Amino acid sequence: LYKNLSDKAYFVKVLLFSMNRNNIIRVISENDEYYRFIATNNDKTSTIEVKRIECLTEKQMMISISKKIKKLEKYNVSPTGKYAKVEKETLKLKW
Question: What would the pLDDT profile of 66-93 be if each residue is shown by its tens digit?
Fold first, then answer.
């Protein structure tokens, strides 16, 4: 609605996954890095707030979800620290 799309725009239905605070995501673009998802910063400009995992800084970064990103993956982390890629995620609602 507020993305300024024309009435003739069409989309292929692709649902990757949902992202919640502190989820681990892998962003493959010019470089390949793992991040901790913090929040959706601005839905209109498609930017998300993340923290780098390998770096010991508390500084947060803003990443724009755009054509530059080749692949976006979500990972679960075991109690022992091993990463497991989320292949299929189904919506589960509890009432």
Answer: 888 888 899 988 899 899 998 877 766 6
